[in-house]
Design brief:
The protein is mostly beta strands and 211 residues long. The chain is 11% helix and 30% strand. β3 and β4 form a beta hairpin. The N and C termini lie far apart (43 Å). It binds coenzyme A.
Amino acid sequence: MHRETLLIVFGARGHGRVVADAALAAGGWRGVVASDRDPALWGTELLPGVPIVAPDALPGLRTPLALHVSIGDNSSRRAEAEALRDLAPLVSVVHPRASLAPSAEIGAGCLLAAQAVVAPLARLGAGVIVNHGAVIDHDCWVDSWCHIAPGARLGGASGVGAGALLGSGCTVLPGLRVGAGVRLGAGAVATRPIPDGATWVGVPAQPLRNP
Ligand SMILES: CC(C)(COP(=O)(O)OP(=O)(O)OC[C@H]1O[C@@H](n2cnc3c(N)ncnc32)[C@H](O)[C@@H]1OP(=O)(O)O)[C@@H](O)C(=O)NCCC(=O)NCCS
């Protein structure tokens, strides 16, 4: 798919810059173009050499396209991937300085940012963000549309349900399950399983409020 294919980075804010930077570093694309629904961004650049165009202009680009939805918020990222699914295939972006074990599996539309680690036999669903310096250790599973924020660490054989946010620098001890839609606060340490939909913070992590 590379070489002839133009990569559309959809979502032209801070996270879009991280994705475009990783895509340019990985290379192999014919080019990288950004898009966003905010008209104020059209005609500007996401990064030097990465123009931001209106969504209406995308179908008219006369070249094979690939799509990466680059929105940090999990539900918005998922919604845009649904809305744009007829435009182009959803593709993952892996920074050349991320570490992806050959035995690990990642779904479509994932980002592995610089210094991210996805260890042997880990499995990621679609649209998962493994942000800068985050670690998904061996045998972990992460369901679709999760955001594993910078510096977060998942101990071996732990798991994360769909749509969860694991905040910057948090830790999940090995073998634990973090439920779907959970928000685990920045810096938290999960020492027990966390039920679906909850927000937990602190060391050891405790519920912030009931779901
Ligand atoms: C946990 C979190 C999701 C809660 O967000 P929220 O529902 O908007 O909560 P609020 O900001 O209203 O804070 C509610 C309370 O929790 C406390 N709190 C918030 N985040 C906390 C954290 N990470 N650790 C400890 N306490 C925290 C606040 O101080 C506040 O306490 P108070 O009621 O005594 O004043 C959020 O603070 C967080 O940590 N998100 C992770 C962000 C991140 O790492 N993003 C990465 C982007 S790349």
